[in-house]
Design a protein that fits this description.
By secondary structure, the protein is mainly alpha-helical. The chain has helices spanning 16-56, 86-96, 98-107, 118-125, 133-139, 155-158, 162-165, 186-198, 202-218, and strands spanning 61-67, 73-79, 143-145, 171-173. The chain has a two-stranded antiparallel ribbon. A two-stranded parallel ribbon has the order 3-4. A hairpin with a 5-residue loop joins strand 1 and strand 2.
Length: 223
């Protein structure tokens, strides 16, 4: 299963004109807030880059192809949190540990991930690894709030709900992130993404952003 760049219709119960006005307001808010946040975060981002370069000399940023609005592919940015040969490290780990392989096949995540560096683990539990995604927001690839960006292999998991995912830009944070994050299984994640799109409102985005602060501080559902 795949999705194309064809236009996706508005979420159920929303008119085209109302959706366009709402998404226009959302986009303006995204650009203004993401720009301000990026300027504020630049010193911390520089400090992270210096530590990373001095510890293993690998690439500072990691980009991975994700699926965006209307099926458009884009390079999602993060601070690199894994060893350079991460795919080989994952392959070896899954071959050695069947239980880890089952966990990976079910959730595409591992509680004990051998690929993650010590600095990367800290960046992940504090969500600092996602700061570069503010650039994705400014570019128009992502939104501050929306479904978490997925890879092509995850499309099949959304089945007929993929049209809801593709109707909006994926977000740095979203309903899934404030509803348990890694403690939520993939089926529930799809349901949360669909619910977010079908019942989207600007006020709802603000509430999710406020809840995100609490989730990050308490490290709820982080791995």
């Amino acid at each position: 299963m795949s999705i194309t760049n064809a236009e996706v219709g508005p979420p159920d119960g929303q008119s085209n004109s109302g959706t366009k006005r709402g998404l226009g307001t959302k986009r303006t808010f995204d650009v203004m807030v993401a720009t301000a946040m990026l300027l504020f975060a630049l010193p911390a981002m520089f400090f992270i880059a210096v530590i990373m370069f001095s510890t293993d000399r690998g690439p500072i940023l990691f980009s991975h192809e994700r699926i965006g609005q209307n099926g458009k592919r884009f390079r999602c940015l993060k601070f690199r949190s894994m060893v350079v040969d991460s795919q080989e490290a994952l392959r070896r780990h899954l071959e050695l540990f069947p239980q880890a392989r089952a966990e990976w096949e079910a959730t595409q995540k591992l509680r004990d991930d051998p690929r993650i560096t010590p600095l990367g683990r800290f960046l992940r539990v504090t969500s600092l690894d996602e700061l570069p995604q503010l650039i994705n927001v400014i570019k128009g690839d992502m939104s501050l709030v929306g479904p978490r960006p997925i890879v092509q292999d995850e499309v099949v998991r959304y089945a007929d709900q993929i049209e809801h995912y593709a109707a909006v830009r994926p977000g740095i944070t979203g309903l899934w992130q404030v509803s348990g994050r890694s403690d939520v299984d993939y089926e529930q994640r799809v349901q949360l993404d669909t619910l977010y799109v079908r019942e989207w409102s600007f006020i709802g985005d603000l509430v999710i952003m406020l809840k995100t602060v609490k989730v990050v501080v308490l490290r709820t559902g982080s791995r």
